[in-house]
Amino acid sequence: MKVGQNTNVEMLAAKLQQNATQQAQQSKSGTASEVVQQSRANAAGVPVTVSNSVRSLDQNSKSSSDVDMAKVNAIREAIANGTFKVNASVVADKMLVDAAGLLGASRI
């Protein structure tokens, strides 16, 4: 090993570059229909068909959301106004239930 050469730093930099490249590729991918269209364009003459069930999944993903944005916005507004209150006993109870589930306990 040469003096002044740090292979750990070089390996870390390479890993960070690889992660950044993967994230950039994932952010470019878009919706399922966009990916299918891109793959059709890149397929060089290979025909690709998408079933109706896949099309319906794509439509469902566009119309439904895993996050209730109305609730998120209401909480943001309450925090900004200083009116958001945390019920500490409810939070503690849920933490105990989660811990019991992780530990495999049948009862708290």
TrEMBL record:
<keyword id="KW-1005">Bacterial flagellum biogenesis</keyword>
<feature type="region of interest" description="Disordered">
    <location>
        <begin position="47"/>
        <end position="67"/>
    </location>
</feature>
<keyword id="KW-0804">Transcription</keyword>
<feature type="compositionally biased region" description="Polar residues">
    <location>
        <begin position="49"/>
        <end position="66"/>
    </location>
</feature>
<comment type="function">
    <text>Responsible for the coupling of flagellin expression to flagellar assembly by preventing expression of the flagellin genes when a component of the middle class of proteins is defective. It negatively regulates flagellar genes by inhibiting the activity of FliA by directly binding to FliA.</text>
</comment>
<comment type="similarity">
    <text>Belongs to the FlgM family.</text>
</comment>
<protein>
    <recommendedName>
        <fullName>Negative regulator of flagellin synthesis</fullName>
    </recommendedName>
</protein>
<dbReference type="Pfam" id="PF04316">
    <property type="entry name" value="FlgM"/>
</dbReference>
<keyword id="KW-0282">Flagellum</keyword>
<dbReference type="InterPro" id="IPR007412">
    <property type="entry name" value="FlgM"/>
</dbReference>
<dbReference type="InterPro" id="IPR031316">
    <property type="entry name" value="FlgM_C"/>
</dbReference>
<keyword id="KW-0966">Cell projection</keyword>
<keyword id="KW-0678">Repressor</keyword>
<keyword id="KW-0805">Transcription regulation</keyword>
<dbReference type="InterPro" id="IPR035890">
    <property type="entry name" value="Anti-sigma-28_factor_FlgM_sf"/>
</dbReference>
<keyword id="KW-0969">Cilium</keyword>
<feature type="domain" description="Anti-sigma-28 factor FlgM C-terminal">
    <location>
        <begin position="48"/>
        <end position="96"/>
    </location>
</feature>
